Amino acid sequence: MSWAVTGMGAVAGLGGDVDELFRNLCAGRSGVAELRGFDHSRHTARHAYEVDNRPAPGVDVTRRATGLLLDAVGQAVRDAGLDDSDLSGVPVLVGTGLRELRSVELWRTQGAEFPASELHFGTALREAFRADDTHTLSNACSAGLYALALGVDLLAQGADTVVVAGVDVLTETMYGLLERVQPVPPTRVRPFDRDRDGVLMGEGAAAVVLTRVPGGRPVHGLVRDVAVNCDAFHVTAPDPAGIAEAIREAHTRGGVKPADIDLLMVHGTGTLLNDEAEATALADVFGPDRDKPLVTATKSMTGHTSGASGLLNLVVTLRCLAEGRVPPTVGLDDPVDEAAGFRFVTGEAAHRPLTVAQLNAFGFGGINAVAILEAAR
């Protein structure tokens, strides 16, 4: 069974809505810039993919993650034709890696004051939309697709409508951690390239409205199913076997074979281990069909938006299916050996009729999620 996506919303460094984001991605524009959110003199890495909505460079404010989340959810709800002043009774599921950790950092380092209740997304969702059934999931970088999996389960159990969202913003804690585990401070993200240096963080939020019966509303696309697992292979190092298992389960749940996939939206972090592990798993599953789907990695232009990345890629993938247009992977000049034979889109956007897509998201600790999407019938 498939579930209809009737509403979409997004905000990221490359755009304040789905249209602007998709247009800039297809144009091959990168959102990377010199770090603006905090003092970079204490860091060797100096770049990030931020949403430029702070008062001034180096001046940060609390509740930015909440603000991006409310923006994306509001867009999606209005796009679906729902009453954005009353989401009572509608489950709202939010995937995130760090929630409002940046607000806590500002409280600790600068004495920023705010009620403790504002650290919970549910408080703002209730005030903005009268949402009284909210749930926050923190499943690292696959949190958005884990929330999507829960949304699909709720629909299968009888819910009529579910809102699924993902959000994260830069925190100095995570920024410092990532730069210290990478040998060379990267200046941009280059997924699957032999000369990639590692990952840089990005910011953003995305949301979708899922329904059992669209009721005459336009449909952006369909979610056939989502598979999730946790292989617990290693705290940070990914396991190709665990990833391959999640992909095979997604194919089974979605009723597809590798040869049916027209588009692969890969996780593609640009880190040394992750790209090789993902490519190895994909080669194992797709085998002789690896040259059939088009492949792209949007983190080359958005950076790694953590809990938002899966849902940002979801809205982009649905737009790809609707328009038959696929953004390029920027900075991919010499693919790693493990990715040999895959049809990466590079240089400029590709144009081709598309029906079925696979969307990957993987997180620390082997938290794997894979979704199968279909163009609107």
From TrEMBL:
Transmembrane segments: none annotated. It holds the Pfam family ketoacyl-synt. Residues 1-375 form the Ketosynthase family 3 (KS3) domain. PROSITE patterns: KS3_2. Gene3D superfamilies: 3.40.47.10. It is an enzyme of class 2 (transferase). SUPFAM superfamilies: Thiolase-like (SSF53901). Keywords: Acyltransferase, Transferase. Its EC number is 2.3.1.179. The keyword Ubl conjugation does not apply. CDD domains: KAS_I_II (cd00834). One of its GO terms (molecular function) is 3-oxoacyl-[acyl-carrier-protein] synthase activity. Belongs to the thiolase-like superfamily. Beta-ketoacyl-ACP synthases family. This is 3-oxoacyl-[acyl-carrier-protein] synthase II.
